[in-house]
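Troubleshooting log. The previous structure file for this entry was overwritten by mistake, so regenerating from the original sequence record. Sequence copied from the archived sheet and checked twice against the printout by T.R.
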Amino acid sequence: MKYINARVLLPEKLVKELQSYIQGGYIYVPTDQAQQKQWGEVSGYRRELLQRNRKIVDEYQQGISMERLAEKYCLSVYAIRKIIYQK
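Regenerated output below.
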């Protein structure tokens, strides 16, 4: 987490108001829930996993066994089963 000087970011009136609550300390401002991104959205990893999982389901439907898929994707048979049967 990167710290930013409040005087650089906020109007002076707001800085004075904050100083009435806290002086020289750190304050965490949480992300607005409506704007918060889900895990893996920023890095793109979530999309990669969804694509991989779709390929696993497609290959299973084409007749490849769960054991072979587990071996191919370096996952357990249990993990493959969860991907195939997820709703």
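The chain has a mean pLDDT of 91. Archived copy saved in two places this time.
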